């Protein structure tokens, strides 16, 4: 059954958009949901706590951990010489002081770049971290939601990610604390074959507002999560995803109002730049 969705104006923000407004003033949050709902909601720090520190840096990941996120979300790509690194864009231009495609630069070239000054002077000198550094720093401490970014540009990236996880005995994660997702659904099928015990997710944009039950059933043959742009999320979509035996973590919440809307829609988790909007501690109900 196809659904017709009225998308709330300004809510459907693509995951590829800027991670958050630097220094944005945060309003005092109020809650209209129960403490029980707050406690069970999965809190995913988007590219780390990217509302507070430069995205996809160790500073952002540590901040997300300190703010008690359930997961840190990371974007994984591959350098010219085959090193797995965490960066969102397929070029280094926006988030570093360098230029060029990630896949055209060696790891040493990327490692020399400043990945923090663009966000604020206090983050000058932050480096682009490797996938292995992130795993070693955070495994067993916080969940890691791994997005394979544009894997079609990096043949063999699924195998390299699998090797890094298997080397650390993370191919059988407890409590789904390792999840792999991508907009490239063929890549997720490949990854699932390599890591059958690791939960996988499909990312979709606003063009999937009319996803059918048949399409959800097909995704469910290899995916455990259907993670859409938050602008297309409705009660009906949430119910249909659950009926297909998948969970739903919409992206990317950047305000308290957006987070509360997603709470009300009954999603399983929220991918957010501001982890403080998705409470994991008791607050007073309004």
Question: Explain this structure to me?
Answer:
The protein has 286 residues and is of the alpha/beta class. The protein has a single domain (35-277), classed as Phosphatidylinositol (PI) phosphodiesterase (TIM Barrel, Alpha-Beta Barrel). The chain has nine helices and eight strands. Strands 1, 2, 3, 4, 5, 6, 7 and 8 form an eight-stranded mixed sheet that branches. The N and C termini lie far apart (37 Å). Residues 1-32 and 281-286 have low confidence and may be disordered. Keywords: Signal.
Primary descriptors:
9 helices; signal; TIM Barrel; eight-stranded mixed beta sheet; globular; Glycerophosphodiester phosphodiesterase; disordered C terminus; disordered N terminus; 286 residues; 14% strand; alpha/beta; single chain
Task: Offer a quick outline of the entry.
The chain is an alpha/beta fold and 286 residues long. The chain contains 9 helices and 8 strands.
Write the layout of secondary structure elements.
Blueprint: H1 35-40, E1 42-45, H2 58-66, E2 71-78, E3 84-86, H3 107-111, H4 131-138, E4 143-148, H5 157-167, E5 178-182, H6 185-194, E6 200-204, H7 213-219, E7 225-228, H8 235-243, H9 256-265, E8 269-272
Parallel strand pairs: 1-2, 1-8, 2-4, 4-5, 5-6, 6-7
Antiparallel strand pairs: 2-3
Highest-level CATH class: Alpha Beta
Please tell me the total number of domains: 1
- Outline the low-pLDDT stretches: 1-32, 281-286
Estimated share of beta-strand residues = 5-15%
Distance linking N and C termini: 37 Å
- Which descriptor suits the 3D outline? globular
Using only CA atoms, what is the Rg? 18 Å
Number of helices: 9
CATH H level, superfamily name? Phosphatidylinositol (PI) phosphodiesterase
How many beta-strand elements? 8
CATH fold group = TIM Barrel
Write down the overall mean pLDDT.
88
Under the CATH scheme, which architecture would be assigned?
Alpha-Beta Barrel
Order of helices and strands: HEHEEHHEHEHEHEHHE
Task: Tell me roughly what share of residues is in helical segments.
Answer: 25-40%
Largest sheet: 8 strands, mixed
**Structural class by helix and strand composition:** alpha/beta
């Amino acid at each position: 059954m196809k659904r017709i969705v009225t998308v709330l104006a300004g809510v459907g923000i693509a995951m590829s958009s800027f991670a958050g407004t630097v220094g944005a003033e945060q309003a005092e949050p109020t809650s209209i949901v129960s403490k029980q709902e707050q406690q069970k909601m999965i809190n995913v720090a988007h590219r780390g706590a990217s509302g507070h520190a430069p995205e996809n840096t160790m500073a952002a990941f540590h901040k997300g951990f300190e703010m008690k996120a359930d997961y840190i979300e990371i974007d994984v790509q591959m350098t010219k010489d085959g090193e797995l690194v965490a960066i969102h864009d397929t070029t280094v231009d926006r988030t570093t002081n360098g230029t060029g495609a990630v896949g055209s630069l060696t790891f040493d070239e990327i490692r020399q770049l400043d990945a923090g000054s663009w966000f604020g002077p206090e983050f000058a000198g932050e480096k682009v971290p490797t996938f292995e550094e992130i795993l070693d720093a955070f495994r067993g401490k916080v969940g890691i939601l791994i997005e394979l970014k544009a894997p079609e540009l990096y043949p063999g990236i699924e195998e390299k990610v699998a090797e890094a996880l298997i080397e650390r005995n993370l191919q059988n994660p407890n409590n789904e604390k390792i999840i792999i997702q991508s907009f490239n659904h063929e890549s997720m099928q490949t990854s699932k074959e390599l890591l059958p015990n690791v939960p996988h997710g499909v990312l979709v944009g606003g063009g999937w507002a009319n996803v059918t039950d048949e399409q959800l059933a097909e995704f469910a043959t290899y995916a455990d999560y259907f993670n859409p742009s938050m602008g297309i999320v409705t009660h009906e979509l949430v119910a249909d995803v659950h009926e297909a035996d998948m969970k739903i973590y919409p992206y990317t919440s950047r305000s308290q109002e957006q987070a509360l809307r997603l709470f009300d829609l009954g999603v399983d988790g929220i991918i957010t730049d501001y982890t403080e909007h998705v409470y994991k501690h008791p607050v007073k109900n309004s």
